[in-house]
Structures are given as structure tokens and as C-alpha cells.
Amino acid sequence: MKFREKLAGFMYGRYGGDQLGIFIIIVNVIVVTVSWFLRQTAGYYVCLLLSAALLALYIYRAFSRKREKRAKENAVFMKIITKIKEFFVRQFNRIRYIGKYRYRKCKKCKTFLRLPRKQGKHTVRCPKCGSTFDVNIIL
């Protein structure tokens, strides 16, 4: 029996890797890199301890047979990461299109609206919830 077949048989029914696992490994690499700069200090040992804990967490998640639980953990992680990405994309677009648009949040449903840059006071209708509100664009 080849090694690949033995490994596939061992991993059958186990969770394996996902985006949260990749994130844990990336954080682990960062912690190890920081520990190189903290040699012969107390922070060095803290980083090594944290690195060992992160590695143990990754191994535990990868070899776990509780697939539903690990999938839920990954779903929560992806929900948080998606919100963070949306925030930074929104900030990038605000800067990128500062000459054309202004961004305002709907007071009722909290959706971000991209409005044309027309100075003065305007009444805006939210396309998602249908509520109307006044917007004052100064610049």
C-alpha cells in the first residue's frame, strides 16, 4: 500500500484544512518571525509558547472528526473577515472616487449609499428599504 493511500485512509472522516486554518498558520509564521527579534527576552518565550499553542490548535482542527463544528467555526471566521474586507474596500473606494461620489449610510437599514457629488441639500431614497432622508453635501 502506497503512502498516499495510507494517508487518505487516515484522513477519511477528518476535517482537514480551511480558511481559518490558513489564517492560523499565517499568524503562527508572524509570531515566529517576531520571536526572532525578541531573542534573550521574556517576549521570546511568550512568542514560542503562543506559536506552540497555535500549531496545536491547527493540528487539532485539521485532524478533528467533528466536521460540522469545524465548519461552523470557519463560517463565523469568514463572516468576520468578509465584514473587515468590505470595510477596507469601502474606504478605498471613498478615496478613489472622492471627486465623483459621496458615501452616506441609510438611517433606517444602515446600508451604504453611493451618491453623486452634487453640493447642497438633497432628499435621498434608499433602494433597499425605501425610506427617504435628507443629505447635505458640503464639498
Structural class by helix and strand composition: alpha+beta
* SS element count, helices: 4
Termini separation: 72 Å
Approximate strand percentage:
15-25%
From the alpha-carbon coordinates, what is the Rg to the nearest angstrom?
Answer: 24 Å
Biggest sheet details: 2 strands, antiparallel
Order of helices and strands: HHHHEEEE
Strand order, biggest sheet?
A: 1-2
What's the total count of β strands?
4
Low-confidence stretches: none
Q: List the domain count as a whole number.
A: 1
Approximate helicity band? 55-70%
Morphology = elongated
Mean pLDDT score = 91
Please give the structural blueprint.
Elements: H1 3-11, H2 19-37, H3 42-63, H4 67-96, E1 101-105, E2 112-116, E3 120-125, E4 132-137
Antiparallel strand pairs: 1-2, 3-4
Helix pairs in contact: 2-3
Can you give a write-up of this model?
Helix content is 58%, strand content 16%. It is of the alpha+beta class. The protein has one domain (3-137). The chain has a two-stranded antiparallel sheet with strand order 1-2. A two-stranded antiparallel ribbon has the order 3-4. The protein is elongated and about 70 Å long. The N and C termini lie far apart (72 Å).
Features:
single chain; alpha+beta; 4 helices; about 60% helix; elongated
